[in-house]
Amino acid sequence: MRLRRGKGSRMEIKSYEDLNGLEIDTLKEIGSIGTGNAATALSQMIGKEVRITLPEVRIMGYNEAIEWIGGPEAITAGVLSQLGGEINGIMLSVQQMDFINLVLSNVLGKPVSDFNMLREMEISTLVEVGNIMISTFINALSGLADISIRLTVPAFAVDMQGAILTVPMAAYGGQSDYIMTIGGNFVCDGRQVPCRLLLSPDIRSLNFLLRKLGVMDE
Amino acid sequence: MNDKLIVGIADMKLAQDGEKLITYALGSCIGICLYEPNRRLAALIHIMLPLNMETGRKNTFKYADTGIRATLREMEMKGACRAAITAKIAGGARMFEVSGGSLGNIGQRNGESVRQILKMEKIRLAWEDVGGTVARTMEFDGATGNGTIRSYGYPEIKF
Predict the structure, then answer these.
(1) For residues A18-49, b (16+ Cβ closer than 10 Å) or e, as one string?
(2) What's the total number of domains in chain B?
(3) Residue ranges per structural domain of chain A
(4) pLDDT digits over A183-218, tens only?
(5) pLDDT above 90 as % of chain A
(6) Is the ipTM of this complex over 0.90?
(7) Which of residues 144-203 of A touch B (CB under 8 A)?
C-alpha cells in the first residue's frame, strides 16, 4: 500500500486500489443516493415505477472492466459528461439495448431492434434521459458533500462498448491502472435492466471528495 | 480461427510462427502492428496514451514510447533485423464530441506520438488508419504481415 500516514490516520490515496473499507462504503452510499435519485428521474420520464438494486463500487483493471460490461465488441450507446468545478471526472451512462428499449417503448411508444434504427428522435430522447440521470446523480453528490460541480453538455456515441469504456480509462490512465465505477441495476416491470451509470473521478478529486465527506483526515 | 492471440489494453503479443493477432475495440487507443518479413516475426501492441511519464516507467505497453521501444527490443532479441521492420497502425479515434478539455484529443495525441516514435526509431510506417470517430477491431496475420480493420457500420478494411 502506497499510503502517506500521519498520526495513525491516512491523509491521501495515490491510486483507486488504495481505498479502504470505510471509503468504499462511503462511495457506495453516494452511489446509492445518486442512482436512487437517477431512478426517480427515470421513473418520472417513463411514467413507470423504477427501483434500484444495491449499487456497487468496483475497482477494476482495464481488461477486467471490459469483460464486466459484457465484452469489448458489443455495440452500445453512451452518454458522457465531463465534471468540472471542485471535482474533475467523467460521468458516463452506458445504455445497452435493454435499457434503450425500456426508455423508448415508454417515452416514444416504439422500441427498436437494432442500434442502426436509432434516428434523431430516438437519439435525442436517449441523450436527454442520460443527461437527466447524470445531472440528478451529480446534484445529489454535490448536495451531500457541499461542493459545486459543473457538467459539460452531454456527448453521445453508438459504438463498441470497449472503446466507449476506454474513454474514462484513458482520461485518467496516467494516474492509475484501475478504473473506479459506481453503479447499480434498475428494476422495472419486474425485470432487471442494467444501469451502467459510471462515475470516474480523478484521484485528486476523489481525495477531495472523501475529505469533504469526512472519511479522510484534512 | 481459435488460435488467435488476443492483445488486451496496454498489452503486446508476439507471433513467431505465423499466428494471428487480434486486439478489440480500439477507440482513442492505437494498435501498432510491427512485422519483420525475413524472420516472419510479428507483434501487435495496444497502447492507450502517448508518453510514459509514470515514476518507475512500469506499464510499458500502456504508452506509445515505452511500448514501441520495448517491442522492438524484444523482436531484435528474437533475431529480427531492425531495418526490415515495418509498421501499420490504426485507432486514435475521437469517441465523443466533448467541447473543451483534453479529453477529445487523446486519440490525436496518440497518433502523433506513435508516428514520432516510429520515426525516431527509423521504422517505416507502411500504412495507417488513424483518427475519425469510430472504434476499430484490428486483426493482424503474423504469417503475411497483412490484416483487417472492423468497425461498426462500416465495411471491413484490408491492410
Answers:
(1) bbeeebbebbbebbbbbbbbbbebbbebbeee
(2) 1
(3) 4-212
(4) 778 888 888 888 788 888 888 999 999 999 888 776
(5) 56
(6) yes
(7) 152-153, 155-164, 166-167, 169-171, 173-174, 177
What is the distance between the alpha carbons of residues A87 and A130, in angstroms, rounded to a whole number?
20
8 Å CB contact of A155 and B62: no
Q: CATH number for the domain including B146?
A: 3.30.1330.200
Could you tell me the residue range of the domain that residue B72 belongs to?
Answer: 5-158
* Contact (Cβ atoms closer than 8 angstroms) between residue B150 and residue B134: no
User: What confidence tens digit (pLDDT) does each residue in B40-79 have?
Assistant: 999 999 999 999 988 777 889 999 999 999 999 999 999 9
Largest distance between two CA atoms of chain A: 60
Q: Which residues does B contribute to its contact with A (CB < 8 Å)? A: 8-11, 24-29, 48-49, 53-54, 59, 62, 93, 95-101, 103, 106, 133-135, 137, 152-153
Query: Would you state the cell numbers that stand for residue B35, as one nine-digit string?
Result: 512485422
Angstrom distance (rounded) from CA B94 to CA A120:
21
pTM to 2 decimal places: 0.91
CATH fit for domain A4-212, picks 3.40.1550.10, 1.20.210.10, 3.40.50.2300, 3.40.50.300: 3.40.1550.10
